[in-house]
Amino acid sequence: MIDKDCIFCLIAGGDIPSDTVYEDDEFRVILDLNPATRGHALILPKQHYADLFEIDEEVLAKLAVLAKKIAGAMKESLACDGINIIQNNGAAAGQSVRHFHLHIIPRYENDGQKMLWIPRESDPEVQKTLVEAIRAAL
Ligand code: AMP
Ligand code: ZN
Which end of the chain, N or C, is less surrounded by CB atoms within 10 Å? Predict the structure, then answer.
């Protein structure tokens, strides 16, 4: 399904121009318009899936392989020192565009970006409850 009101559907389908680094029948990989770092890219499926909960599993499996390919090309071409793979789901997690996309962010020593969380103490009893809750839902 393509959503005519979705900007990433329009970009992925080529109706809106983008800095495309890769394209095939199912995906387009573009440079982010407001990059966190030099070379920050987004993998967009051409079909519309709002988020991880909606995306087709076969598409997701292919997307993971493509992410590895793009990350490898970045490592070779950009002389980056590391790479973050980020994928946000829901406003609380920072998702601003409701069309599934995977961020591939090259990292450079002293690039001034902060993408890590603040680690907190864990409580063994709470951890046990969480393990039980998640396992029961699988
Ligand atoms: P998220 O916050 O995970 O939903 O990420 C959305 C990303 O899309 C942000 O990093 C934006 O900079 C990027 N973005 C939004 N509009 C465009 C656009 N027209 N072309 C390229 N990147 C875009
Ligand atoms: Zn879309």
Answer: C
DSSP notation for the chain: ---TT-HHHHHHTTSS---EEEE-SSEEEEE-SS-SSTT-EEEEESS---STTTS-HHHHHHHHHHHHHHHHHHHHHH--SEEEEE---SGGGT--SSS--EEEEEE-TT-------------HHHHHHHHHHHHHH-
For ligand 2, the distance from its centroid to the CA atom of residue 98, given in whole angstroms, is 7
Q: How far is the CA of 48 from the centre of ligand 2 (A)?
A: 4
Delimit the domains of the chain by residue range. Answer: 7-110
Each residue's pLDDT tens digit, 106-136: 999 999 998 888 999 999 999 999 999 999 9
Nearest ligand, CA of residue 29?
1
Provide the whole-model pTM.
Answer: 0.96
Closest Cα to atom 12, ligand 1: which residue? 34
